[in-house]
Amino acid sequence: MKFGVVQIVDGVPGRGLDFVAETASAMEDLGFASYWAPDHVAFFDNVLSVYPHSEDGTFAFRKDQGLLEPIMVLQAAASATKHIRVGTSVEVITLRNPLVRSKHVVTLDHFCNGRFDYGVGIGWMREEYDAAGVPWENRGQRADEYIQAMKELWTQSRASFDGSYVKFKNVVAFPKPLQSPYPPILIGGTTKAAIARAAKLGDGWYGWKMTIDELDLAIEQLRIELEKAGRSIDDGFRLLLGMPHHG
Questions:
Q1: 19 vs 26, 28, 67, 78, CA distance in Å?
Q2: CB atoms < 10 A from the CB of 35, how many?
Q3: 113-131 per-residue burial string, b: 16 or more CB within 10 A, e: under 16
Q4: What is the pLDDT of residues 231-247, one digit of tens each?
Q5: How deeply is 230 buried, as exposed, middle or buried, from its count of CB atoms within 10 A (0-12, 13-18, 19+)?
Q6: What phi and psi, each to the nearest 5 degrees, are found at residue 170?
Protein backbone atom coordinates (compact mmCIF):
# COMPACT_ATOMS: atom_id res chain seq x y z
CA MET A 1 0.00 0.00 0.00
CA LYS A 2 1.22 3.47 -0.91
CA PHE A 3 0.00 6.83 0.38
CA GLY A 4 -0.50 10.10 -1.47
CA VAL A 5 -2.07 13.46 -0.74
CA VAL A 6 -4.82 15.31 -2.62
CA GLN A 7 -4.41 19.03 -2.11
CA ILE A 8 -6.79 21.87 -2.97
CA VAL A 9 -4.92 24.74 -4.59
CA ASP A 10 -7.28 27.65 -5.01
CA GLY A 11 -4.86 30.53 -5.46
CA VAL A 12 -5.82 32.41 -2.31
CA PRO A 13 -2.91 34.00 -0.43
CA GLY A 14 -0.62 31.25 0.81
CA ARG A 15 -2.14 28.58 -1.42
CA GLY A 16 -0.64 29.33 -4.81
CA LEU A 17 2.03 27.62 -6.88
CA ASP A 18 4.78 28.34 -4.33
CA PHE A 19 2.64 26.46 -1.81
CA VAL A 20 2.40 23.56 -4.28
CA ALA A 21 6.17 23.37 -4.74
CA GLU A 22 6.89 23.60 -1.01
CA THR A 23 4.35 20.98 0.05
CA ALA A 24 5.13 18.55 -2.78
CA SER A 25 8.81 18.72 -1.87
CA ALA A 26 7.99 18.12 1.79
CA MET A 27 5.76 15.15 0.87
CA GLU A 28 8.59 13.62 -1.12
CA ASP A 29 11.01 14.08 1.79
CA LEU A 30 8.49 12.43 4.14
CA GLY A 31 8.14 9.39 1.90
CA PHE A 32 4.71 9.93 0.36
CA ALA A 33 4.27 8.21 -3.00
CA SER A 34 2.12 10.75 -4.85
CA TYR A 35 0.75 14.28 -5.06
CA TRP A 36 -2.74 14.83 -6.53
CA ALA A 37 -4.62 17.87 -7.82
CA PRO A 38 -8.45 17.91 -7.89
CA ASP A 39 -10.49 19.47 -10.68
CA HIS A 40 -13.52 21.63 -11.36
CA VAL A 41 -13.67 24.11 -14.21
CA ALA A 42 -16.39 26.26 -12.62
CA PHE A 43 -18.26 26.84 -9.36
CA PHE A 44 -21.64 28.40 -8.62
CA ASP A 45 -23.41 30.08 -5.73
CA ASN A 46 -26.47 27.85 -6.04
CA VAL A 47 -25.96 24.22 -7.07
CA LEU A 48 -28.96 21.95 -7.53
CA SER A 49 -26.91 18.93 -8.61
CA VAL A 50 -26.53 16.23 -5.97
CA TYR A 51 -23.00 15.58 -4.71
CA PRO A 52 -22.71 11.78 -4.44
CA HIS A 53 -20.19 11.68 -1.59
CA SER A 54 -22.08 13.41 1.23
CA GLU A 55 -25.09 12.37 3.29
CA ASP A 56 -27.16 15.43 2.37
CA GLY A 57 -26.03 15.67 -1.28
CA THR A 58 -24.27 19.01 -0.89
CA PHE A 59 -20.64 19.96 -1.41
CA ALA A 60 -18.93 22.33 1.03
CA PHE A 61 -17.92 25.05 -1.42
CA ARG A 62 -16.33 28.15 0.07
CA LYS A 63 -17.59 31.58 -0.90
CA ASP A 64 -15.76 32.61 -4.09
CA GLN A 65 -14.47 29.07 -4.50
CA GLY A 66 -11.92 28.38 -7.24
CA LEU A 67 -9.25 25.91 -8.29
CA LEU A 68 -6.11 26.37 -10.33
CA GLU A 69 -5.88 24.23 -13.48
CA PRO A 70 -4.70 20.78 -12.31
CA ILE A 71 -2.24 20.12 -15.14
CA MET A 72 -0.43 23.37 -14.26
CA VAL A 73 -0.58 22.63 -10.53
CA LEU A 74 1.08 19.28 -11.19
CA GLN A 75 3.74 20.94 -13.30
CA ALA A 76 4.63 23.08 -10.28
CA ALA A 77 4.70 19.98 -8.06
CA ALA A 78 6.88 18.08 -10.54
CA SER A 79 9.34 20.94 -10.89
CA ALA A 80 10.06 20.82 -7.14
CA THR A 81 10.45 17.03 -6.88
CA LYS A 82 12.37 14.15 -8.41
CA HIS A 83 10.60 10.92 -7.46
CA ILE A 84 7.06 11.49 -6.20
CA ARG A 85 4.32 10.77 -8.76
CA VAL A 86 1.77 13.44 -9.66
CA GLY A 87 -1.82 12.90 -10.73
CA THR A 88 -5.26 14.38 -11.38
CA SER A 89 -7.85 13.50 -8.71
CA VAL A 90 -9.85 13.36 -10.90
CA GLU A 91 -10.18 15.51 -13.99
CA VAL A 92 -13.61 15.98 -15.57
CA ILE A 93 -12.43 14.59 -18.90
CA THR A 94 -15.65 15.37 -20.76
CA LEU A 95 -15.14 19.13 -20.33
CA ARG A 96 -11.88 19.08 -22.33
CA ASN A 97 -11.34 18.72 -26.06
CA PRO A 98 -9.55 15.36 -26.38
CA LEU A 99 -7.23 16.46 -29.18
CA VAL A 100 -6.06 19.45 -27.16
CA ARG A 101 -5.97 17.64 -23.83
CA SER A 102 -3.94 14.77 -25.24
CA LYS A 103 -1.17 17.28 -25.97
CA HIS A 104 -1.36 18.72 -22.44
CA VAL A 105 -0.99 15.21 -21.00
CA VAL A 106 2.00 14.43 -23.21
CA THR A 107 3.66 17.71 -22.28
CA LEU A 108 3.24 17.11 -18.54
CA ASP A 109 4.46 13.52 -18.89
CA HIS A 110 7.66 14.80 -20.51
CA PHE A 111 8.01 17.63 -18.00
CA CYS A 112 7.83 15.30 -14.99
CA ASN A 113 9.99 12.62 -16.60
CA GLY A 114 7.22 10.04 -16.74
CA ARG A 115 5.74 10.49 -13.26
CA PHE A 116 2.18 11.42 -14.27
CA ASP A 117 -0.98 9.42 -13.50
CA TYR A 118 -4.06 10.57 -15.45
CA GLY A 119 -7.11 10.32 -13.19
CA VAL A 120 -10.33 11.01 -15.08
CA GLY A 121 -14.08 10.97 -14.45
CA ILE A 122 -17.31 12.51 -15.70
CA GLY A 123 -18.09 14.75 -12.72
CA TRP A 124 -21.37 15.22 -10.91
CA MET A 125 -22.30 18.90 -11.41
CA ARG A 126 -24.68 19.56 -14.30
CA GLU A 127 -24.24 23.31 -13.88
CA GLU A 128 -20.58 22.89 -14.86
CA TYR A 129 -21.53 21.15 -18.10
CA ASP A 130 -24.12 23.80 -18.93
CA ALA A 131 -21.61 26.61 -18.42
CA ALA A 132 -19.03 24.84 -20.58
CA GLY A 133 -21.55 24.22 -23.37
CA VAL A 134 -21.20 20.44 -23.13
CA PRO A 135 -24.36 18.28 -23.09
CA TRP A 136 -25.00 16.53 -19.79
CA GLU A 137 -26.77 13.67 -21.53
CA ASN A 138 -24.66 10.70 -22.72
CA ARG A 139 -21.63 12.00 -20.86
CA GLY A 140 -20.54 8.44 -20.12
CA GLN A 141 -20.39 7.54 -23.80
CA ARG A 142 -18.61 10.82 -24.47
CA ALA A 143 -16.00 9.96 -21.83
CA ASP A 144 -15.45 6.54 -23.38
CA GLU A 145 -14.77 8.11 -26.77
CA TYR A 146 -12.48 10.78 -25.33
CA ILE A 147 -10.36 8.12 -23.61
CA GLN A 148 -10.24 5.94 -26.73
CA ALA A 149 -9.42 8.91 -28.96
CA MET A 150 -6.55 10.01 -26.72
CA LYS A 151 -5.14 6.49 -26.75
CA GLU A 152 -5.10 6.62 -30.56
CA LEU A 153 -3.29 9.96 -30.48
CA TRP A 154 -0.72 8.64 -28.00
CA THR A 155 0.03 5.39 -29.80
CA GLN A 156 -0.43 5.96 -33.55
CA SER A 157 1.87 7.99 -35.79
CA ARG A 158 -1.16 8.96 -37.90
CA ALA A 159 -4.18 8.90 -35.64
CA SER A 160 -7.79 8.63 -36.74
CA PHE A 161 -11.02 8.27 -34.78
CA ASP A 162 -14.62 8.14 -35.96
CA GLY A 163 -17.09 8.31 -33.10
CA SER A 164 -20.32 10.06 -32.22
CA TYR A 165 -18.53 12.81 -30.27
CA VAL A 166 -14.97 12.74 -31.61
CA LYS A 167 -13.92 12.65 -35.26
CA PHE A 168 -10.49 13.24 -36.74
CA LYS A 169 -8.43 11.64 -39.48
CA ASN A 170 -4.73 11.18 -40.13
CA VAL A 171 -3.52 13.46 -37.32
CA VAL A 172 0.28 13.57 -37.18
CA ALA A 173 0.45 12.75 -33.50
CA PHE A 174 3.86 13.58 -32.05
CA PRO A 175 5.58 13.60 -29.66
CA LYS A 176 4.43 10.50 -27.86
CA PRO A 177 4.16 10.27 -24.06
CA LEU A 178 7.34 9.46 -22.20
CA GLN A 179 5.57 6.58 -20.45
CA SER A 180 4.79 3.69 -22.77
CA PRO A 181 2.22 3.37 -24.17
CA TYR A 182 0.83 6.36 -22.24
CA PRO A 183 0.43 7.59 -18.64
CA PRO A 184 -1.70 5.24 -16.51
CA ILE A 185 -5.39 6.09 -16.89
CA LEU A 186 -7.15 5.85 -13.52
CA ILE A 187 -10.91 6.07 -13.89
CA GLY A 188 -12.80 7.59 -10.98
CA GLY A 189 -16.35 7.01 -9.85
CA THR A 190 -18.32 4.71 -7.58
CA THR A 191 -21.28 3.91 -9.86
CA LYS A 192 -21.56 0.61 -11.72
CA ALA A 193 -21.06 2.48 -14.99
CA ALA A 194 -17.82 4.07 -13.74
CA ILE A 195 -16.52 0.73 -12.49
CA ALA A 196 -17.35 -0.89 -15.84
CA ARG A 197 -15.53 1.95 -17.62
CA ALA A 198 -12.47 1.43 -15.45
CA ALA A 199 -12.45 -2.29 -16.21
CA LYS A 200 -12.86 -1.76 -19.93
CA LEU A 201 -10.69 1.29 -20.58
CA GLY A 202 -8.59 2.03 -17.50
CA ASP A 203 -5.30 0.98 -15.96
CA GLY A 204 -6.83 1.40 -12.53
CA TRP A 205 -9.93 2.45 -10.59
CA TYR A 206 -10.17 5.44 -8.25
CA GLY A 207 -12.87 5.30 -5.58
CA TRP A 208 -13.70 8.16 -3.23
CA LYS A 209 -15.05 8.42 0.32
CA MET A 210 -16.47 4.90 0.67
CA THR A 211 -17.31 2.74 3.65
CA ILE A 212 -15.65 -0.67 3.93
CA ASP A 213 -18.91 -2.36 2.87
CA GLU A 214 -19.24 -0.05 -0.15
CA LEU A 215 -15.62 -0.70 -1.08
CA ASP A 216 -16.08 -4.46 -0.83
CA LEU A 217 -19.08 -4.31 -3.16
CA ALA A 218 -17.22 -2.04 -5.61
CA ILE A 219 -14.19 -4.33 -5.76
CA GLU A 220 -16.42 -7.37 -6.32
CA GLN A 221 -18.16 -5.52 -9.15
CA LEU A 222 -14.76 -4.55 -10.51
CA ARG A 223 -13.63 -8.18 -10.53
CA ILE A 224 -16.76 -9.14 -12.48
CA GLU A 225 -16.31 -6.34 -15.04
CA LEU A 226 -12.62 -7.09 -15.47
CA GLU A 227 -13.40 -10.73 -16.12
CA LYS A 228 -15.90 -9.67 -18.80
CA ALA A 229 -13.10 -7.65 -20.42
CA GLY A 230 -10.70 -10.59 -20.26
CA ARG A 231 -8.66 -8.95 -17.52
CA SER A 232 -7.84 -9.55 -13.87
CA ILE A 233 -7.53 -7.34 -10.85
CA ASP A 234 -4.30 -9.20 -10.04
CA ASP A 235 -2.55 -8.33 -13.32
CA GLY A 236 -1.21 -4.92 -12.30
CA PHE A 237 -4.62 -3.21 -12.24
CA ARG A 238 -4.36 -0.37 -9.73
CA LEU A 239 -6.82 0.36 -6.92
CA LEU A 240 -6.97 3.81 -5.35
CA LEU A 241 -9.21 5.11 -2.58
CA GLY A 242 -9.56 8.76 -1.65
CA MET A 243 -10.45 9.64 1.94
CA PRO A 244 -11.04 13.15 3.32
CA HIS A 245 -8.71 14.18 6.13
CA HIS A 246 -9.54 17.02 8.51
CA GLY A 247 -6.85 17.92 11.00
A1: 11, 14, 14, 13
A2: 28
A3: eebbbbbbbbbbbeebbee
A4: 999 999 999 999 887 76
A5: exposed
A6: 50, 45
